[in-house]
Amino acid sequence: MGHDECVAPSFTKSDLIVKVTLTYLSALTVLCTMLVLLYCVPQLVVSGVIEPGPLFELMVVFPTVVGVVASLIGAVTGAVVLPRVVRAGQYTAATMAAGQIITCTIAFAIVLWAGYFATTGWELLMLPLALFIGQAVVAGGLVSRVRQVRHAV
Asked: What residues contact 68, with CB distance under 8 A and at least 6 apart?
């Protein structure tokens, strides 16, 4: 089959709730990542350095914290639903779940690195990198999801 939610014969209401939760959390985490990129990329292109200015907390720190927490919720939700959606051929949900799991794995590795090895604390500045890598996969799943919904209508 390979289409989305309602096509799978073993589709239940709880599956819908989990997939909708995963979709909305994925949209939130991708939005947070876009805010961080919107702040960082122009500065890196122009000067090669990211300067903490008056919008740094609003555009980098807050979206990173919200994005990582939402990604953790998405990773747990995705881990619950991943085996079922892969069996049902619903690859958009599987892609979003995998991206959330990748994001959390990288974020966990960065925090573990900062907490248990001889470090300076600067490595925590790499935490937004977890969002960049994992959310690229999530964004691919969201784009596929939007295309599926448009073709279904």
From this structure: 103, 104, 107, 127, 130, 131
- The model's pTM: 0.82
Which pair of tokens denotes residue 110?
């960065």
CA angle, 117 then 37 then 118, to 5°: 5
How many Cα neighbours within 13 Å face the side chain of 7? Answer: 13
Sign of CA dihedral 34, 75, 96, 10: negative
CB 85 within 8 A of CB 97: yes
| pLDDT on residue 126 | 78
For helices 13-46 and 127-152, what crossing angle results, to 10°? Answer: 130
The three-state secondary structure class of 83 is: helix
Contact 129, 109 (CB under 8 A): no
What residue type is 2 in one-letter code? G
Could you report the per-residue pLDDT of 53-93, keeping only the tens digit for each? 888 889 988 998 999 999 999 999 888 888 888 887 788 88
Strand ranges for the chain from DSSP E: none
